[in-house]
Amino acid sequence: MKNILKGAGAAALGLLIALGPQFLFKACSLDCGCCGEWPICYWSTQAVLGIGFYIAALGLCLIIFEDSKIQLGILAAIFAGAVVAILIPYALIGGCPGRTMADYRRAFPGIAIVASVTMVYACLLAFLCVRKKK
What is the pTM of this model? Predict the structure, then answer.
């Protein structure tokens, strides 16, 4: 039962990372005209979409695999995925040129907050997993 709760929590956070910039805290629209036909923030949110689904799939793997060593590896991958989710909009791809655009006001801070919560969640579960193993 605990594995289902741990995995469901990680999968929910991954889906929030994936679908948050699409529906909850939207970036610029495709017709904003700031960067041409396809805004740069569009590509950032598409990359974060993939990372979020990756974290959600790893959350489902937490439900399936019950060995603590495998779960520690999955939790390390979830932590690394959350780090990449933060790095994509701020360092790797970036956003639109104007810092007043919707991506810098809504989407990127939302991604950073949810990914930070995911990192803390993965660290907490890893601590509990190591403590249970001893």
Answer: 0.89
